[in-house]
Amino acid sequence: MIKESELQAENAFDRETVGAGDYYLKVVKKGQTVRILDLEGNQAADTLFYNANDVSERYSATDTIREQGNLYLTAGSVLMSNECNPMLKIVADTCGRHDTVGGACATESNTVRYALEKKCMHACRDSWLLAIAENEELGLTKKDITHNINFFMNVPVTSDGKLTFADGISGAGKYVELEALMDVVVLISNCPQLNNPCNAYNPTPIEVLIWNESEVL
Amino acid sequence: MILYKDALPSGKHWSMRMRRGTSLRLIDKTGGANVGILFYNPENLLERYNAPDSLKCQHTFKLTQGHCLYSDMGRIFCAITDDSFGWHDTVSGNSNAALVEKKWGKRDYQTERNNWKQNGTDAFLVEAAKYGLNKQDLAANLNVFSKIEPDDEGALNYSAQQSKAGDFIELRFEMDTLVLLHTCPHPLNPSATYPEFEVEYQILQSAPVSDDDLCKNLCAENQRGYENNRLYHLGL
Predict the structure, then answer these.
(1) Is A217 a residue whose pLDDT tops 80?
(2) How far is A9 from chain B (nearest CA, A)?
């Protein structure tokens, strides 16, 4: 569902551009709103969320899918934790559909999907592993690197049970915006994938903006 | 050749180490069964079943004969070598205590003893803890014998066509694997009462994987997955 935001970028208190192949790691407080902006189009923002006060509680794709009874994420979707608590709500979305079935690229999965010789190419799960290694105070380990959201990715599932990676439906300037329903750690890998035609083999930057609750009201 | 067989009623959990070269055959004895399953590498428990990788590399949403179940390290835990049902779920997750209480009533050992209304999450937590694993180690699980259909808009429905008495699936293990399983009801099962069923499981000696094996040759991705397994076992 397409829903535009009324928030103005100049009122965001935090803005960061994230290059392809880099990670983004920040805490967003309850009541704040975070926007992920696809600057050049058809980029994948592979995203994980954790309860900032207890990282063993985290985004759960299965609980989110089951509770909303739908595979795709868009405006109105509530992102559920592995404790079945609401973590964030998608409050605006100009893309219309985001994937949470397809997971993230890894060097090992690249060997299966593309070729064994691709094993040393940069991948999302390597970005996340570096992020948790460089931020040990969070207490995250490999067991916390799990089933993510692919913002801006289009992964249609058919009624006869097929799964396809279709051309993107995102474009330059499209965004998704989430209100935090608890304090959350936001961990994004801006996908470095060079082997997938869905980004025209050219991963590009995203921007992440955060607004205080006072701007939202 | 059947090496062992046993049966589990609904609402139970168990775990086992499956050896490479053996197969696990699950049989729905009553109809309407569900078996929640997770896989780990006993040599490195951080290597575990990865549903997104398994679906993505085989371009499938449903799991059935020919498909392989992958770890997050690009290796194949097991291959679905036989399946009479045709569509097993791996995106709906588990029931939990609150969900079961809301749908079917409170879990109550004092009154119901071992017929208590166990839920999938607690079942996995107990089995996982036996190996030093906790809730952070749980991932999207298999729900064998449960068909969850999407429509063109992504809306999910618990199919009217669920498994019948005698339906089976066989998993051929391609590496040593720790298997956690439970027979708690699928979280989307609309039954008015806590579902009751029985599942038989058989452990069999697998036939050797032939060059023209269906699972290995389902797609180029699976051929590469088998090559990763071959590399993992070099020198053995």
Answers:
(1) no
(2) 32
Q: Which residues of A touch B149 (CB under 8 A)?
A: 159, 161
In a domain, A3, yes or no: no
**Taken in order B141, A157, A91, A66, is the CA torsion positive or negative?**
negative
Residue A82: its chain B contacts at CB < 8 A?
135, 138
CB A162 to CB B60 under 8 A?
A: yes
Distance CA A109, CA B55 (A): 11
Q: Which two tokens stand for residue B185?
A: 């009801």
Length of chain B: 236
Confidence band for A164, pLDDT divided at 50, 70 and 90: confident
State which residues form the domain around A151. Answer: 9-216
Ordered by start, the domain boundaries in chain B are: 2-232
Three-state DSSP string of B13-78 = EEEEEECCCEEEEEEECCCCCCEEEEEEECCEEEEEECHHHHHHHCCECCECCCCEEEECCCCEEE
The pTM score is 0.98
Q: Is A15 left (phi over 0), alpha (psi -120 to 50) or beta?
A: beta
Is residue A63, in this structure, part of any structural domain at all? yes
CA distances from B203 to B6, B79, B146, B173 (A): 9, 14, 22, 11
Tally the domains of chain A. Answer: 1
Distance, in angstroms, between A132 CA and closest chain B CA? 15
| Distance separating alpha carbons of residues A20 and A203, to the nearest angstrom | 6
- Residue A203 belongs to a domain: yes
Residue A168 has pLDDT above 90, yes or no: no
Average the pLDDT over A50-73 and give the result: 98
- In degrees rounded to 5, what are phi and psi of residue B89? -85, 145
| Two tokens, residue B188 | 């989307």
- Contact flag B74-A115 (C-beta cutoff 8 Å): no
Residue A100: inside a domain: yes
What are the CA-CA distances from residue B16 to residues A158, B38, B145 (Å)?
35, 11, 20
Rg (CA), chain B: 17
Across the strands, what pairs with B180?
B15, B38
Residue whose token pair is 């109550």: B108
Question: Each residue of A96-124: pLDDT tens digit?
Answer: 999 999 999 999 999 999 999 999 999 99
Residue B79: strand, helix, or coil: strand
- Within a 10 A sphere around the Cβ of A93, how many other Cβ atoms? 24
Looking at residue A216, its pLDDT comes to 78
pLDDT, tens digit, 9 for 90 and up, residues B102-121: 999 999 999 999 999 999 99
